[in-house]
Amino acid sequence: MDANTMAIAVLLGSFFIMIFLRFPIAYAVGLASVLCLMAQGLPLSNICQYMVKGISSFSLMAVPFFITMGVLMGSGGISDKLIALANACVGWMRGGMAMVNIVASYFFGGISGSASADTASLGSILIPMMVDQGYDADFSTAVTITSSCEGLLVPPSHNMVIYATTAGGISVGSLFLAGYIPGALLAGCLMIGSYIISVKRNYPKGEPFSIGNLIKQLSVSIWALAAVLIVVFGVVGGMFTATESAAVAVVYSLLVSVFVYKGLDWKGVWKALDDCVATLSIVLILISTSAVFGFCLTRLHVPDLAANAITGLTRNPYILALLLNLILLVLGCIMDMAPIILIATPILLPIATSIGIDPIQFGIMVILNCGIGLLTPPVGAVLFIGSAIAKLPMEKVVKATLPFYLCMVISLLLITFVPAISMWLPGLMG
Q1: Helix (H, G, I), strand (E, B), or coil: what is residue 170?
Q2: 361-384 residues labelled b (16+ CB within 10 A) or e (exposed)
Q3: What is the DSSP letter of 335?
Q4: Which residues are CB-neighbours of 290 under 8 A, at least 6 positions away?
Q5: How far is 356 from 350, CA to CA, in rounded Å?
């Protein structure tokens, strides 16, 4: 075994061993990088240099702003407004509260950009509400956790910013636009699945549709939805960079939460900011340690070796696309979302582009694959949150979620093999 192969074995072997031993992911990435550098006889000062370099990016400045915006809006009484708006839109259908849950997640995702925040915020309201109206608790939880993944696709999403930076600085505005239709597709597939189950189990309908109620709820919720418009149209229209639009959105979110909806007082604002710092510290240490890990991968030519190994199996672009999704789904079972984006993107993106997948489309595929990973054991953070809120065993929630896994996989395959789903809107807006 030559020195290069030995270093790769040390890097990847130690990393996966620590993952299975349940090390915190940032420690696993960082320690594996240290061992790899030692195996190559390189100075450990490289660690500090590449950690600093990893977070010294203007584009990444948008990440703390988007996280802050989501926490402020999520803590400011927005959830109730969006649930009422979703109820006015789709609550009249069979299994109406399940439909409300899915549509509310689409709206809330455009504010929080986080599946965990969506599940924690909407789930604590909607799961007990659905159970009181006659829905099974495991079904209610399954709908909540799967629909929360819409928030990863609907902009603004800090994970999209991380992907854009990792992929070599592709357009954040194009990624934002690319997420709307896939997010709606996912919501539609989940609604079809929910409707079929609701008819089979005879779940109740809501109140009849009323255009007056819809207009009333829209007028109340427009202040929250406007934050999304500021970010997306500001970036796409060229008025702001992603970072500048995120900063403007934070100020707007603060004003709306404190003075319009009055869901936050200044004491609550400080608590929300404290939560932001806690979340941001996790994200930034992951980005910085992943930068060192990426340096080791590049130096050892792991992306090229992986690309040659995968393409050596077959030249069929459809099979290769399925393999890329399978790799991401497997990684989602053992790793959290941000590390997958940071580590897998440099390896898999060249393979995707070689078979004609646009980097923007591949970004949507990565985000959705990671979203499914958040719902799968043993490291499914959103699955754990949903189980805790509903006070149900994880095994029971997983069983109830099986039909919705199928809905999500169908959405993923459509996004993979129908590029227009992701690329039409960015192409339309130029």
Answers
A1: coil
A2: bbbbbbbbbbbbbbbbeebbebbb
A3: S
A4: 29, 54, 338, 339, 342, 343
A5: 10
In whole angstroms, give the CA distance from residue 138 to residue 370: 23
Per-residue pLDDT tens for 36-65? 888 888 887 878 887 877 777 666 677 777
Residue 102 contacts by C-beta under 8 Å, 6 or more apart in sequence? 90, 143, 147, 150, 187, 190, 191, 194
Every domain of the chain and the residues it spans? 3-428
Provide CB contacts within 8 A for 62, sequence distance 6+: 158, 161, 172, 241, 242, 243, 245, 246
| Those residues with Cβ within 8 angstroms of residue 354's Cβ, 6 or more apart along the chain or in another chain | 307, 311
Please answer whether residues 317 and 325 qualify as being in contact, where contact means their C-beta atoms are separated by less than 8 angstroms: no
What's the pTM value of the predicted model, to 2 decimals?
0.79
- The rounded distance, in Å, linking the Cα atoms of 350 and 327 is 14
Q: By the 8 A CB rule, do 107 and 85 touch? A: yes
Kindly give, in sequence order, each residue whose CB lies less than 8 Å from that of residue 278, ignoring residues fewer than 6 positions away: none
pLDDT at 237: 67
β-bridge mates for residue 94, sequence order: 205
Q: Indicate whether 33 pLDDT > 80.
A: yes
Cα separation, 98 vs 143, in Å, equals 7
User: Using one digit for the tens of pLDDT, what is the confidence trace for 328-370?
Assistant: 888 877 777 878 888 888 888 988 998 889 999 999 999 999 8
Which of these, 314, 273, 424, lies nearest to 358 by C-alpha position?
Answer: 424
Identify whether the C-beta of residue 249 lies closer than 8 Å to the C-beta of residue 230: yes
Stretch 20-35: mean pLDDT: 83
